Amino acid sequence: MMHGLVNVSYEAMLRLVIETDQQKRHGIDAIINTTFGGFLGLPQSMIHRLDLSLFSQDSSQSSHENFYQVTVLWDNERRLIPVSVVVGDPVVGMGLLQGYSLQIQVTQHGIVTVDRIR
């Protein structure tokens, strides 16, 4: 089970711990975004600062998007996940939440609970 908080803007937040190729751990506060189908979205500046590895390039006609990869500590396990480039704050998407239950106390400083569906 993982816990987060609702911030003063009523956004459900989770703190993620990611590991870079240099075996360094970094804490990232990310907004849970149920309209984002990906796993994790980070701004380009953060991807550059963390020196993430390029995973793939989507050069289809509708998109010219780069995808990166990172190891995240998720539910006490290491998971290698894809990272999308986003504008704005880091976001956790539905891809990472798949197989989990999400409960949010919608009040400032409310508790966010993410628990594996058994």
Short descriptors:
9% helix, six-stranded mixed beta barrel, 118 residues, mainly beta
The number of distinct β-strands equals: 10
- The low-pLDDT segments are none
Strand content: over 45%
Query: Which structural class do the helices and strands define?
Result: mainly beta
Question: Can you describe this structure in just a few lines?
Answer:
Helix content is 9%, strand content 53%.
List the helices and strands and how they pair.
Blueprint: E1 2-6, E2 12-19, E3 25-32, E4 40-42, H1 44-50, E5 53-58, E6 65-74, E7 77-85, E8 91-92, H2 94-97, E9 100-104, E10 111-116
Parallel strand pairs: 3-8, 4-7
Antiparallel strand pairs: 1-2, 1-10, 2-3, 2-6, 4-8, 5-6, 6-7, 9-10
Describe this structure in words.
- The protein is mainly β and 118 residues long.
- It contains two helices and ten strands.
- It has helices at residues 44-50, 94-97; strands spanning 2-6, 12-19, 25-32, 40-42, 53-58, 65-74, 77-85, 91-92, 100-104, 111-116.
- The chain has a six-stranded mixed beta barrel with strand order 2-3-8-4-7-6.
- 23% of the residues are buried.
